[in-house]
Amino acid sequence: MSKKIGPPSTNVEFDKLYSSVGHWIWSDVRIPRELKELVTINKPKNSIELGCGIGRFSSYMAEQGINVTGVDFSSVAIDKAKKRINNSELKPTFIVGDVTNLKGLNNQFDVSFDVGCFHCLNEEGQKKYIEEVYRLLKPGAIHLLWALDNSPSNIKLNPNYISNVFGSHFQLTKSKFSGRRIIFVASHWYWLTRIK
Ligand SMILES: C[S@@+](CC[C@H](N)C(=O)[O-])C[C@H]1O[C@@H](n2cnc3c(N)ncnc32)[C@H](O)[C@@H]1O
């Protein structure tokens, strides 16, 4: 059997990286200003993070007094996220789940966010993800997304693409070029408003 070469795409491949130092490549420990602003500007009471990994950003949200659910399909990452939970009063709920099928969740969230998960998905996965985020967000709520321009799934992501692919369910209200990782990579922040 030939070995697949390229970025990880399955939960098994991500599990391997989370079991080793492999995941450090995307582990920028700084809390993005954009996420801090989501808290101060939108003042959410509850929130969901798609592709939460070891849960740094969900934990930050919980420390701000927000009820947060973090979802990732890597059980190794979710185990680590659970172990990292600190003593903040509100603890994140970490769930092993696929962002393209979140049927077990029926909450209506005030905001949602994703730092590096959407860009892992192929076209079919993207469509299902968008349906799920739409279903789980309150009308008018914001989905904050950070994604690489050159996505690991080989789809070129840019404001035009994001506006079109989210188009039936979300309006792209703002986008901003970003080089957030320590090793510079072209990427964007996107603010998507769920259509009412
Ligand atoms: C680049 S990592 C980012 C992790 C975290 N947001 C961070 O910045 O540290 C992408 C994450 O998305 C998760 N992921 C990718 N595809 C997924 C899917 N279909 N369902 C759930 N999680 C997924 C991976 O397991 C991984 O934890």
Write the layout of secondary structure elements.
Blueprint: H1 11-18, H2 33-42, E1 46-50, H3 56-63, E2 67-72, H4 75-84, E3 93-96, E4 109-115, H5 123-136, E5 137-148, H6 159-165, E6 170-178, E7 187-194
The chain binds S-adenosylmethionine.
S-adenosylmethionine (SAM) binds next to loops.
Walk me through the structure.
- The chain is of the alpha/beta class.
- The protein has a single domain, classed as Vaccinia Virus protein VP39 (Rossmann fold), CATH 3.40.50.150.
- Helix content is 29%, strand content 26%.
- A 7-stranded mixed sheet has the order 3-2-1-4-5-7-6, sandwiched between helices.
- The protein is globular and about 40 Å long.
- It binds S-adenosylmethionine (SAM).
- The site of S-adenosylmethionine has 18 residues, from loops.
- S-adenosylmethionine binds next to loops.
Would you kindly provide a brief summary of this structure?
The protein is α/β, with parallel strands linked by helices. The protein has helices at about 10-20, 35-40, 55-65, 75-85, 125-135, 160-165; strands at about 45-50, 65-70, 95, 110-115, 135-150, 170-180, 185-195.
